[in-house]
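quick one
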Amino acid sequence: MNPTPTASLEKLLVPKIDRIDLVTVRLPFVAPFGTSVYVWTDKEAMLMRLESGGVVAWSECVSDPDPFYFYETNGTARHIIKDFLLPLVEPGIALGELEARFRHVRGHGMAKATIENGLLNMLAMQQGVPLHRLLGRPAKKIMSGLSIGLKETRGALLDAVANAVAKRYQRVKMKIKKGQDIDWVEAVRDRFPDLRLMVDANGDYSLDDIGLLKRLDAFNLMMIEQPLAYNDIYQHAAIQKEMKTAICLDESIHSLADATTAIALGACRIINVKQGRVGGLMESMRIAGYCAGRGVDVWSGGMDETGIGRAVNIHLQTAEGFTLPGDTSETSNYFSEDIVEPPVVLRADGFIDIPEGPGIGVSVVPERILKRAVRMERLL
Ligand code: OSB
Ligand code: MG
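structure w/ 2-succinylbenzoate:
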């Protein structure tokens, strides 16, 4: 285990940025994505475009337009980036110093990650290396996993799982909510006895539901993601003690400090790291490195990102500690046409190749940005 996986990244210097734009795009989903907290029918993503010495690097803010999954929204991220974070970005300071300055702003990890991702992508582009190389990690084939939203019927759910199995996804996650849980999981498990299967409740249950949650132990699930409140750690520790199935925390983890608390309390045996939710790639690597030495599995979550954020998640999964398949699935699962090329496609063996080329390795298609843009703003 490497205790300081980001030491060399912290020494990299912030390049001089010549121009900054925020572009919000709206991409319709191929099908609505249902969770216990909301049903999304499209992805409205705020993108950041940096220009430095003729090199262009993009990043994606993983917030939604609404605060239903997480408190940050595209609106709050724009405000925090424009009014508080960008004034702290100074050419020539080290990334570690930039992180320290950003800490003065409490929370707002998704806003911070947008700038951090953009700068790391820019540095990788300028050095002519893939992002994972800049992160100090060798290339590897990336594991795939599908997150299936709540469906109207059990038949539709079983069809979606069958499709995932046919494509050789390495694990399947199904969303559950109160009243749409035990029977639905049982139906999937009966039909797919050997599938690596997990569930995600997005915080829909409470301690009173311990009896119901314990019934999920019968289905040999890899884990139960965020069964209790989005802001709880302690009560998760109480139910983890009662349950055989591993608890995985998603919403509750915003930083390495939160991960430390959760592990110390025994609140989970697995952590879903969404790089935006924890403030960027560097904090993600710290969390995964910390967990690696403590027998806690980590995987990369997703936020239904466009190809920009999706590529970032793929590069991140080369880091030490990412031991389980993440929510990293094919572009066609979300969009009929993404804003980047090439799309993410599963290999015949169910793995994903890291996109080749410098930086995040995918190219933004300008005409598609123009076609999908709902807002554009030049910040510098
Ligand atoms: O809870 O992991 C979640 C999508 C949006 C908000 C929250 C979650 C999700 C997903 C889908 O589960 C992840 C993905 O496919 O990108
Ligand atoms: Mg989740």
